[in-house]
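Please go through the sequence and fold tokens given here and tell me how the chain folds. Record follows.
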Amino acid sequence: MENTYQNDERYFRAKKQIEEIKGFYGNLASYIVFNSVLLVINLVTSPDHLWFYWPLFGWGIGVVIHGLRVFNYMPFLGKDWEKQKIKQIMDQENKKNWE
């Protein structure tokens, strides 16, 4: 029974991770398409005044952060930090219960 529960839990974690990855790739595709359209609009309407790079830069920061979070490369507040905090809080609770 325990093994089935662990397999189910791992399956749902993996499925959640896949959904997050799909969400990131959707965000990345939107970023590329939308900013390509903005580039074309900018070059057609006012090639002497380039403004397309502002949304490219702003949204790009968001895409990078999203990718770092999805692929677990966050140097701060990542999954390892979360696991450590959960363990710390649980240890504190156990300590309080024993006192």
Notes: Residues 4-98 form one domain. Residues 2-45 form the longest helix (44 residues).
